[in-house]
Amino acid sequence: MSKNTIQLRSLNDAPRVGQTSDDLVNGMQRHFLRTLGLSKACISDHYKYQALALTIRDRLMENWKDTKEAVQETDGKRTYYLSLEFLMGRALGNAILNLGLDEQATQALHDLGIDIEEMIEAEADAGLGNGGLGRLAACFIDSCATLQLPVTGYGIRYEYGMFRQSIVDGFQQESPDHWLREGNIWEMERPEYIQAIHFGGYSESYHDDNGILRSRWVGTHDVLAVPYDTPIPGYKNGTVNTLRLWKSAATDEFDLGEFNAGDYAGSVAQKNNAEHISMVLYPNDSSENGKELRLRQQYFLASASIKDVLRQWVEVHGEDFSEFAAKNCFQLNDTHPTVSVAELMRILMDDYRLTWDESWAITSKTMAYTNHTLLPEALERWSVRLFSHLLPRILDIIYEINARFLKELAKKYPGDVARQRRMSIIEEGDEQQVRMAYLAIVGSFSINGVAQLHSDLLVEGLFADFYDLWPAKFNNKTNGVTQRRWMAWCNPSLTQLINKNIGDSWITQLDELRRLAPLAEQASFRKQWAACKRENKETLAAIVQEECGVTFSPDAMFDIQVKRIHEYKRQLLNVLHVIHLYDRIKRSDADNWTNRCVLIGGKAAPGYYMAKKIIKLVNSVAEVVNNDPDVGDKLKIVFFPNYRVSAMEKIAPAADLSEQISTAGKEASGTGNMKFMMNGALTIGTLDGANIEIREEVGDENFFLFGLTAEEVEQTRGNYNPNAIIEADEDFKRVMNLLQSAHFNQFELGLFDDVINAIRCENDPWLTAADFRSFIDAQQEAATAYQDKTQWLKMSIYNTAFSGKFSTDRTMQDYNRDIWGLTPVKLK
Ligand code: KVW
Q: What is the torsion angle, in degrees rounded to the nearest 10, for the CA atoms of residue 564, residue 565, residue 567 and residue 568?
């Protein structure tokens, strides 16, 4: 027995925390009294939330311990999901749901006279991600816990998550998201697992005790990585997995030398510098910004996590790594943590004295890489110069990986120098760059895209040379979302209706929803389905009223586009349609009209000029449309501020129409599209990303398709004439005239010139004008379809019924079957 083991005899034998509503009431009272030290008189909402969260957390702790022990005892293969982002949102409701305590918690709070909704709202979102990629990581670890897969998430504990967005005079204004201000009940600091992370210095060679020439990294400035663990509960299965997030800290509180020499400021500055690493999430989605601090973050995560995994390995197996690759897998969430490839090589060689070949055999069988985008602006490249001063030893290793790789290429393709240049991990040029995607491909045994089209395009285009070399490494894993959060939790009325009719097995077997399809023929079922949707629309309408001061009538079609603001996602095309509808109303061309409430939401990267213009345009159009008495209830449009996970929990259940209108070939997958589908929205969309698979599942007749295909998009380049398209289309001409006549910016002339020019530009990469007509026509089809209530309800039911494929339970089973090969860890 090690000195850190104690007998927990009396506790282990004690009965577990109770699960009745009375037990919860008692638990809360105990926390009020003993944890929070409160008397009855001063229990604010914040304390009520804390007592509830602590009481729920109590119900996780022993399961968490049991899961850790079971995983250790099994000593089977494990996966580590390395991600710079985990967009978790709120934890309380999810924990209540997964513990199966929803009814008891509702009853307990009722008994205490506390409003459960207020408790839920009291928790800050953990917004440690930008968008789809970060939320995907969160859904993945939820599903892994539910499937009892031994998967640990590794990320960074950003002090400030995604910025808060407010709208001032129609413009986005950013403010810091200090999400930890009121504490975080769900995290546990684990100082015993602190790691030191190296930066700077230089690498040198030396002869070890046996006279063998080795390398080492010396003269480094070290930063501490302090782990904070968050429990990730599976759904009613006793499993609680771990999300381990690293916070950076200075190695010493102060540099005593500097301090004694009188440089107080200098000694504190060093502390500051160390703490900067985990200070803030970079708010760029799908575009790299090349800042040194970002590379520091990437290496900080990679090094801390790999050291942590090796620490655990050595504790059990000593320095015998022969089984390491068979028992460990690192899944790299995009190229962001890819420096892990070189870091694992470094530690195996420099610290554990394995040879290059031994280390490479391990590393290249342990790493797996997920690519999330084809957009060139998102492909990470780091300058060799930056690498050489920040991570000199890592750069040595990358050079060596590349040298050996190029030799292999020369053997396979003799004399093909152009190919070697194309495929080199080091890009030559004025400034040498490390191509991170290539490092990831060379260092990994599996490379996957995130939807079928995306994976096909990867091997046909961006990675074609690598596919030619290693076809077996490439595979597709279509994304998903967790139905626990994105239906069972966020849509209780629909959940109840579904459970009443087909039972609740869909909560862990989403395919079961198929059994809803025949019910679409029953008038009484449709009526109840409609009632759920209406209730959810009323809830959202109240929020829109509060946030935007605009009245949404639940009778109207709720037409929704929420996602990061990006030109390729074409929020602009959505606005053009709204202007077209407005123009029709003004021209009294509104026979058989379908009333519509259009909601657009999403954050623009702070440095993304066009994205910010588009937000302003939405707000300017809204100002005119919403205040025009001719328009009335026919059309409303709002820009929903501060779109985030907890907002989507109210938005998805209320949507009638989901806008997934990216330029074909540009949206790798999309995951918002899946949340809307599950909640019974119909999609208007292009043949892009997972939309294609959504349409395949639900059937062409239940999907509003428009636009060029990815192939047509490519063919259009070089012979695109948007001005001719506009000229030939009376509706389009009028829309552009309204924009150009400053109808929406009377007092700010020229405000939207750049937007207008982008639409009219022959090099517009997003081909907005090319898809205008077919978009307008598809929107008209949707409007007409909405008037046939019976048919619309059937289509809505079919969308939910055929959404089974888009559960991350399926996605994780695919990863596990093809990449990880883990055995579920059952609990006693
Ligand atoms: C840098 C991304 C944050 C920082 C992507 S592609 C690149 C990034 C880059 C994020 N995010 C999105 O990943 C989602 C999950 O796979 C996809 O659904 C989405 O299509 C893609 O744009």
A: 20
Q: Closest Cα partner for 408 from 385, 424, 426? A: 424
- Cβ–ligand 1 distance for 671 under 6 Å, the answer yes
Shortest CA distance to 801 belongs to which of 519, 452, 523, 537? Answer: 519
Distance 390 CA to ligand 1 centre (A): 27
Overall size of the chain counted in residues: 828
E strand spans, 440-541:
446-449, 474-476
Q: How many CB atoms lie within 10 A of CB 587?
A: 9
CA 46 to chain centre: 28
Residue with structure tokens 């530009």? Answer: 761
The DSSP code sequence of 48-63 is: HHHHHHHHHHHHHHHH
Verify whether ligand 1 is closer than 6 Å to residue 450 (CB atom): yes
**Does residue 373 line the site of ligand 1, with CB under 6 A?**
yes
- Residues with catalytic annotation? 372, 563-564, 569, 671, 675
**Residue carrying structure tokens 């961006």:** 462
Q: What is the pLDDT of residues 300-349, one digit of tens each?
A: 999 999 999 999 999 999 999 999 999 999 999 999 999 999 999 999 99
Ligand 1, pocket-test mutation among 85, 298, 372, 688, most atoms within 8 A of CB: 372
Query: Which residue has 């040298």 as its token pair?
Result: 403
Q: Name the band, by pLDDT with cuts 50, 70 and 90, for residue 258.
A: low
Identify residue 73 by its one-letter amino acid code: E
Q: What would the two tokens of residue 494 be?
A: 């629909």
Q: CA–CA distance from 720 to each of 571, 753, 762 (Å)? A: 21, 20, 6
φ/ψ of 286, rounded to 5, equals 55, 30
Cα distances (angstroms) measured from residue 458 to each of 136, 449, 462: 20, 7, 5
Q: Which atom of ligand 1 is nearest to the CA of 668?
A: 20
User: Are 187 and 54 within 8 A, CB to CB?
Assistant: no
Residue 1 confidence (pLDDT): 44
Backbone angles phi, psi at 770, to 5 degrees: -60, -35
Q: What is the pLDDT of residues 161-210, one digit of tens each?
A: 999 999 999 999 999 999 999 999 999 999 999 999 999 999 999 999 99
Spatial distance between the Cα atoms of 344 and 361, rounded to a whole number of angstroms? 11
The residue whose CA is least distant from atom 18 of ligand 1 is 670
> Closest Cα to atom 2, ligand 1: which residue?
286
For residue 410, count CB atoms less than 10 angstroms from its CB and return exposed for 0-12, middle for 13-18, buried for 19 or more: middle
Q: CA of 294: how far to CAs of 256, 381, 750, 753, in Å?
A: 29, 12, 36, 34
Q: What kind and span of H or E run contains 258?
A: helix 256-260
pLDDT of 828 higher than 90: no
Q: Residue ranges of the alpha helices (H) in 318-339?
A: 324-327
Question: Ligand 1 atom closest to Cα of 284?
Answer: 4
Interval between CA 286 and ligand 1 midpoint (Å): 6
Q: Is 594 in the pocket of ligand 1 (CB under 6 A)?
A: no
- Band of residue 473 on the pLDDT scale cut at 50, 70, 90: very high
pTM, full prediction: 0.97
Residue located nearest, by CA, to atom 10 of ligand 1: 285
Q: In what order do the strands lie in the sheet with 381-383?
A: 381-383, 433-435, 426-427
Instruction: State the CB neighbour count (10 A cutoff) for residue 25.
Output: 18
Give me 726's structure tokens. 């506009």
Query: Tell me, what amino acid is at 564?
Result: R
Angstrom CA distances, 452 to 251, 475, 480, 511, 692, stand at 46, 9, 13, 19, 8
Q: Is the CB of 668 under 6 A from ligand 1?
A: yes
Closest CA to 87 of 245, 236, 221, 208: 245
Mean of the per-residue pLDDT values for the chain? 96
- Run of H or E including 585: helix 571-586
Q: How large is the C-alpha radius of gyration of the chain?
A: 28
Residue 614 half-sphere exposure toward CB, CA atoms < 13 A: 26
Cα-to-centroid distance, 250 and ligand 1 (Å): 32
DSSP letter assigned to residue 807: B
